[in-house]
Design a protein that fits this description.
By secondary structure, the protein is an alpha/beta fold. The chain is built from twelve helices and 21 strands. It has a five-stranded antiparallel sheet with strand order 2-1-21-20-19, with helices on both faces. It has a five-stranded mixed sheet with strand order 17-8-6-3-18, covered by helices on one side. A four-stranded mixed sheet has the order 4-5-7-16, with helices on one face.
């Protein structure tokens, strides 16, 4: 029933029938659009009804601009602003995740005559370097040979219903990875394509290549200009007993140069097993066992604990690079910390809701699904997303929050935008995009030296194209140059 209510609400929003005021009010507000924004909409063939704007100067009581600002919209990844600010204030910027290793038998002469347990607590950034450091610490503590199996304890998060294909039927895409208490390297493999004309081949490098994954390269190199490097490539993943075979086929144009593709090729347990075998062998260890999932027994002994970077660094990675997987991990962590284990999405949503209430931020139109924006259910109004940004400015952790946002023309998702004009380096903005959705929200330093909160939520056919980006840039240019 809850899911159905969310779906119905999202459909009403998409059709422009659900808002905090009558639809006619949206049309009335459209007359007050700044001329450059209205011109951009007209030039690219957009109606006004799909655009919501909210602009407020820091320190002022009333907004400079409010266009359809109460209308619920799909925010895409700009909803991460709410998730990350709530987490910073609830957990503090110095908060860290831990990952623990347990044994049920004593380690004698470097040998463990039993299983090695690894328990995860939701670390969103247990990348291969950090996982290697964890295993190196085990070797430094004297462990060399493991006679038993590798046992993964995922109990800190509940196993929730859902599938990686649910959002867009693309289960191999790294952004669709589902939360796990022990999530290693985002469960992904980075495939790098390097054309080599001298030998008429395309080299494919997998990093990492788990020990139980094999790569088969059938790609043909074409001595041609680039016509889109990925669209003529084929990729198949075949699971064969205890091994996985990844087969690339098709044609690759030499003119495309080097490129990379992040993909998920196996489920969490076999992926971690393959990575563990690879790294443990490189570290001089011995292991011939298998993998299973179970909780750590009560009689087990803690052998080692590793810690993540502080939350402030994690939030920076989430917002700078719009990492959906990390945002979802953060939401479940927030739920586990505030409502007890196991962490669930609902507990995380409740924690965010309670944070809003304590700050007297009442958002009746807000719908959260996963806190990352990879959703056709999550909705918020431009006004209330603007209030989140204003709360961020007043937060004791304001420096950590604002510095986590991409800086125009310099880093993150904005590193290739606004690099030829006055906006370069003048804006900290979180971007978002889905099919027919384009959003941006953050802080602009205008030419008069005033800091301004800006929210632009555009839900319209083609909003995610270059035309939608042009409208967005007209908004930001107007904010920067206004009298």
């Amino acid at each position: 029933m809850k899911q159905m209510m969310r779906w119905k609400f999202a459909m009403l929003v998409a059709l422009g029938l659900c808002g905090l005021g009558p639809v006619s009010a949206v049309w009335a507000e459209a007359d007050r659009l700044p001329e450059p924004v209205a011109a951009a909409l007209k030039r690219h063939g957009f109606p006004t009804r799909g655009l919501s704007l909210y602009v407020q100067e820091i320190g002022q009581d009333e907004p400079v601009l409010s266009i359809a600002a109460n209308q619920p919209r799909f925010p895409a990844s700009t909803i991460k602003l709410l998730t990350t600010l709530a987490a910073l204030e609830e957990l503090t910027p110095a908060w860290r995740w831990k990952t623990e290793a347990y044994v049920t038998q004593p380690v004698r002469d470097g040998r463990l005559a039993g299983d090695l347990y690894i328990k995860g607590y939701g670390d969103p950034y247990l990348v291969i370097e950090h996982f290697w450091r964890l295993l190196r610490a085990l070797r430094a503590a004297g462990l060399e040979t493991i006679d038993g199996n590798l046992v993964l304890d995922q109990s800190h998060f509940a196993r929730e219903a859902g599938d990686a294909a649910d959002f867009d039927n693309q289960p191999l895409r790294a952004y669709n990875v589902l939360p796990n208490a022990l999530l290693v390297n985002f469960q992904a493999v980075n495939f790098r394509f390097i054309p080599q004309l001298s030998v008429q081949r395309v080299q494919i490098i997998a990093d990492p290549l788990p020990a139980n994954v094999e790569l088969e390269n059938r790609v043909v190199l074409a001595d041609a200009v680039c016509r889109g490097w990925a669209h003529r490539l084929g990729m198949k993943v075949r699971h064969e007993k205890d091994r996985t075979r990844v087969v690339f086929s098709g044609t690759y144009d030499a003119g495309c140069g080097n490129n990379e593709l992040f993909r998920v090729v196996s489920e969490p347990a076999p992926y971690i097993l393959g990575l563990f075998r690879l790294l443990w062998t490189e570290l001089g260890g011995r292991f011939a066992g298998d993998v299973r999932e179970a909780t750590v027994p009560a009689e087990a002994t803690l052998f080692h604990t590793s810690y993540s970077p502080p939350l402030a660094d994690i939030v920076r990675s989430i917002n700078k690079y719009s990492n959906n997987v990390m945002a979802r991990q953060l939401l479940l962590t927030l739920g586990a910390e505030k409502a007890g284990t196991p962490g669930t999405t609902d507990k995380g949503i409740q924690a965010v809701s309670e944070w809003l209430k304590r700050r007297n931020l009442i958002f009746p139109e807000l719908v959260l699904e996963n806190g990352a924006g990879l959703s056709r259910e999550e909705t918020i109004s431009a006004r209330h997303l603007g209030q989140v940004l204003l709360a961020g400015w007043r937060s004791p952790y304001m420096p950590e929050f604002i510095s986590s946002l991409p800086l125009a023309a310099m880093d993150g998702t904005l590193r290739r935008r606004f690099n030829s004009g006055a906006l370069e380096g003048q804006m900290h903005l979180k971007t978002g995009s889905l099919n027919d959705v384009r959003s941006v929200a953050g802080y602009v330093l205008d030419r008069a030296g005033r800091r301004v909160v800006v929210v632009c939520l555009h839900n319209q056919a083609r909003a995610d194209t270059a035309a939608g980006e042009a409208v967005q840039e007209a908004v930001l240019q107007w904010v920067h140059e206004r009298p």
